[in-house]
Specification:
The complex is a heterodimer of chains A (about 160) and B (about 170). In chain A, about 20% of the residues lie in helices and about 35% in strands. Chain A has helices spanning about 30-40, 45-50, 50-55, 65-80; strands spanning about 10, 25-30, 90-95, 105-115, 120-130, 135-145, 150-155, 160-164. Chain B is of the alpha+beta class and about 170 residues long. Chain B has a domain at about 20-30 and about 65-145: Thiol Ester Dehydrase, Chain A (Roll), CATH 3.10.129.10. Chain B is globular. Classes of the chains: A alpha+beta (about 160), B alpha+beta (about 170).
C-alpha cells in the first residue's frame, strides 16, 4: 500500500485560521491490496472490483477501484489536513467521472470555497485527478470547522496482512 | 468483522427488470477492525476514529466510524444487490446526520425512485439507519443500470489480519 510520508504530528486548521482559497492535497496510487481491503471493509464484492475474468468483459475491460474508495480519500484529506481533526462532516457530493485502474496515481485535493462565520461551517471543492490531470471524481463537501486547535501525535497506521 | 456471505452467487437486476420502488439492504455492525481497516485503506488517520483518549473529549465522546464507511455500505448495496454487477456509478450525495459508534448495527438501504429505460439511468434514495431506527446518512445515487443479466460466483476475499494497535 502506498502511504506517502506523513508528518508525525497531526494538526488542524481552526475556523479563524481557515482562509477561503486554502488548499490541501494527498497523492495516492491504487494497488491490488487497496481493492481487496475496501471490499472487506465495505462488503462490496462486486466482480467489477474482484473478478479479473468478469472485468475483462466489462465496459472498463479490467478491474477498477470502488468509486467510494476515491470518496474515502477526499474524506481523509478533510479529516487529517484541511480542516483536520475536530472537523464534523455534514455532507459530501461525489460525481464519478472516470474509473481508477490498478497503478493509477491520483492527486486528491480540497479547496475552501466559502465560510459561514455564524455556524462555523465551510464548503470545500473536492477533486481527484489522474496522472494526466483528468478529473476522476469531483464534488463538494460541507463541514463544521473546529474552533479550537488540535495538535496530536499522528495515530500509527494499522498493519494489515492479507492471506489468500 | 461482520462479513456476511449469505449467497454463493452474485446477481444483478437489469434495467428491464428494475421497478420503481424496488428496495435492497445490507446490515453491518461496526467493530474496531472496521475502523482500523478503513483508516488503512483510506489513509484517514483522524484521531476521532483511532485515538480513544482524544475521542472521549470530542462532542461524540468516543471513537466513531469514518463517515464514508457508511457511504461505502450504500455503494456495496448498489454494486452487489440492486442493481448489482454491471452498475456504473455516476453520482452520489451523502448527508451525515449522526455518528456511528463501536457496536452500532446499521442498515444501509437503497430504493429505486426513478428509472429511464432509454438512457438506462436510475435514481436511488439511499439511507443508513442505526439499531434505534435513527437516520445516520441519507443521500441520493444516480447510476447506469446494466442492460444484461449477470450471475456469477462470488469472488473469495483473502483473510485480513490486523496487528494490535494498543487502542
Amino acid at each position: 500500500m502506498d502511504t506517502c510520508l506523513e508528518p508525525a504530528v497531526i494538526e488542524n486548521v481552526t475556523f479563524d485560521e481557515l482562509a477561503v482559497g486554502a488548499e490541501a492535497h494527498v497523492r495516492r496510487t491504487l494497488f491490488p491490496d487497496d481493492i481487496l481491503l475496501f471490499a472487506h471493509v465495505s462488503g462490496d464484492v462486486n466482480p467489477a472490483h474482484l473478478d479479473p475474468e468478469y472485468a475483462a468483459h466489462s465496459d472498463f475491460h479490467e478491474i477498477i477501484a470502488h468509486g467510494m474508495w476515491g470518496g474515502s480519500l477526499i474524506s481523509a484529506v478533510l479529516g487529517t489536513r484541511l480542516p483536520g481533526p475536530g472537523t464534523i462532516y455534514l455532507g459530501q457530493s461525489l460525481r464519478f467521472r472516470r474509473p481508477v485502474r490498478l497503478g493509477d496515481a491520483l492527486t486528491v485535493s480540497v479547496k475552501c470555497t466559502s465560510k459561514d462565520a455564524e455556524r462555523h461551517r465551510a464548503t470545500f471543492e473536492c477533486r481527484i485527478t489522474d496522472r494526466l490531470g483528468r478529473d476522476v471524481i469531483t464534488g463538494e463537501a460541507d463541514v463544521v470547522v473546529p474552533m479550537t486547535k488540535v495538535r496530536r501525535l499522528r495515530p500509527s497506521l494499522p498493519h494489515v496482512r492479507l492471506e489468500p | 468483522m461482520d462479513m456476511t456471505m449469505p449467497h454463493v452467487l452474485i446477481e444483478n437486476v437489469p434495467i428491464h427488470q428494475l421497478e420503481v420502488g424496488a428496495h435492497a439492504e445490507m446490515v453491518r455492525s461496526l467493530g474496531l477492525e472496521d475502523i482500523q481497516l478503513f483508516a488503512a485503506v483510506s489513509g484517514d488517520m483522524n484521531p476521532a476514529h483511532l485515538d480513544r483518549e482524544y475521542a472521549k473529549d470530542t462532542p461524540f465522546q468516543g471513537v466513531i466510524a469514518h463517515g464514508l464507511w457508511g457511504g461505502a455500505l450504500i455503494s456495496a448495496v448498489l454494486g452487489t444487490k440492486l442493481p448489482g454487477p454491471g452498475t456504473v456509478y455516476l453520482d452520489q450525495s451523502l448527508h451525515f446526520s449522526r455518528p456511528v459508534r463501536l457496536g452500532d448495527t446499521v442498515t444501509a438501504s437503497v430504493t429505486c425512485r426513478a428509472k429511464n429505460d432509454e438512457t438506462c439511468r436510475a435514481t436511488f434514495d439511499c439511507l443508513v439507519v442505526n439499531q434505534r431506527g435513527e437516520t445516520v446518512i441519507r443521500g441520493v445515487a444516480e447510476v447506469l443500470v446494466p442492460e444484461n443479466k449477470v450471475c456469477r460466483p462470488r469472488s473469495p476475499l483473502p483473510k485480513v489480519s490486523l496487528e494490535a494497535l494498543g487502542l
